[in-house]
Amino acid sequence: TLGTQTDYRDGEAQTDPYSPEYVLPSGSVPELLTLATLTWGRGLPAGLVEVEMIERAREKRAWEATLPAMDNASNIAKRKKMMEDMERKEWAFREQEIEKLQEVRLEVLKKLLQRREENQNELDAKRLDDHWQNHQKAKEEKIKKIQHDCALMLRKLIAKRKNVMGKLERRDIIREYTDFASQTYAPLSRIGYFPDNHSERYVVKNFYLNTFAGLCELEASLPDSVTQVEIKAPKPKYTTTKTGFIKRSAKLEVELAQVHQ
């Protein structure tokens, strides 16, 4: 009435089925020995193919029992004819097995070819997509360049349109210096001026700051009050008692004075 349950499944602890040792009595050939070549995972448990093999083995044993004895010439000829017929049947069965095996291999080959074709189609589609993306990128860059050139030409046309007649204008110095966006304050590099050139001339180079001898001379010229500082201890603002404590009233007076300031 009681049952037990383990922590493991049977499949995790199951080994190959046990096959005990056996002893054959003399003169007996049990039918079970025809399955001695089958093992667990290779023919066992028996399927349709194994059942057909067992049935053929039984038919062959029954046929062997019907063979005539080789005691005279007629029986020998009859036995030879029966064996030839059985051999033709065996060859025909073997051919059928080969055909079945070839059909299975052909199906596997078809599946492999189909899978390879699908992979090749996917690869071709990916390459085509990459090629299309590259063309799209080149097209966008070309359109962007055309738009940039268009804006540049429009600016040039607008600048030419301002002076259609080609009249020479005198320089207005007052307008240039009042407009902080003019060439005086912000010259353009395309007219031959580069404001960042020769920027090293604005770097401060001081003998007293960049050399050790200058630093020594600068330190010697300073007064003693700069190099030798005398610190005086500040006098306490609080009134202390004989024991050194600060009275609360004195502390409040200092705080009030700070608030008043």
UniProtKB/TrEMBL annotation:
The keyword Cytoplasm applies. Keywords: Cell projection, Cytoplasm, Cytoskeleton. Residues 4-156 form the CFAP91 domain. It holds the Pfam family CFAP91. Signal peptide: none annotated. Coiled coil: none annotated. It comes from the Eukaryota. It is found in: Cytoplasm, Cytoskeleton, Cilium axoneme. One of its GO terms (cellular component) is axoneme. Belongs to the CFAP91 family. This is Cilia- and flagella-associated protein 91. It comes from Uria aalge.
